[in-house]
Design goal:
Blueprint (H helix, E strand, L loop, with lengths): L4 H31 L6 H8 L3 H6 L3 H14 L11 H7 L4 H32 L1 H27 L3 H4 L3 H14 L2 H10 L4 H24 L1
Helix pairs in contact: 1-2, 1-4, 1-6, 4-6, 6-7, 6-10, 6-11, 7-9, 9-11
């Protein structure tokens, strides 16, 4: 055997496995969005991914597929990690100007919401009917709030005066408000139900976030 052949083949197998997993999760996102959680089957996902049902089961059960499919669709990577660890977000967080941070972060979040609004509706519905999905959903919400708390802290560190005036409670409430406004639910209502264009939605989101940040500081000062 030529030296180095085995590690090379191992790497190829690993890359193939990663590609297969991504294909399965992308298929799962499409199937769950189109059929809902209860009506979607592993066979449906396998057919959409072009793999065997056994291959899908390796990445299951179904509730795990739903969570991973959402994480992949929203942030580009499956796994229970903070979105702040994504390279795109890390690059934005490295900026010095808080206005530039918002100007680049909001379009990223708007696009993520657009990709996941249908899947989010499936997730929320399933969480109400399935206790295990509900537990996964609760964990996702907890991580989402932590991300927004980190965002508030970052903007404060970068010199946003209104945030600098906030105490711990004020920062927590601002994170609550941002999590609400910047959620996939908002995109679904404004774009999916009310017919707003994505451009209009993104502009509204940026303006609303700026208003919330300024108002939070004013309320704390008062």
């Amino acid at each position: 055997m030529v030296p180095g052949t085995r590690p090379y083949r191992s790497t190829l197998r690993q890359e193939h496995a990663q590609q297969t997993r991504r294909r399965i999760l992308e298929a799962a996102a499409d199937v769950f969005s189109a059929r809902g959680y209860a009506s979607a089957s592993l066979a449906d996902i396998a057919a959409a991914a072009g793999v065997s049902v056994e291959s899908v089961k390796v990445h299951g059960p179904k509730r795990a597929l739903l969570l991973s499919a959402f994480e992949l669709t929203f942030g580009g990577e499956a796994g229970e990690s903070s979105i702040t660890q994504r390279p795109e977000i890390a690059a934005i967080a490295a900026l010095d100007d808080p206005e530039r941070i918002l100007a680049e972060l909001i379009p990223f979040m708007a696009a993520a919401n657009a990709r996941t609004s249908g899947l989010w509706a499936t997730f929320t519905a399933a969480a109400r009917d399935d206790a295990e999905v509900g537990a996964a959903f609760a964990g996702l919400l907890e991580r989402r709030h932590a991300d927004y708390a980190a965002m508030v802290g970052l903007l404060g560190e970068r010199g946003t005066a209104s945030i600098a005036r906030l105490d711990a409670k004020g920062r927590r409430e601002l994170a609550d408000a941002l999590s609400f406004v910047m959620s996939p639910e908002g995109h679904q209502q404004l774009v999916g139900e009310s017919g707003w264009s994505f451009r209009r939605y993104t502009a509204w989101l940026l303006a609303t976030v700026r208003t919330l940040i300024a108002a939070a500081g004013a309320e704390q000062k008062g």
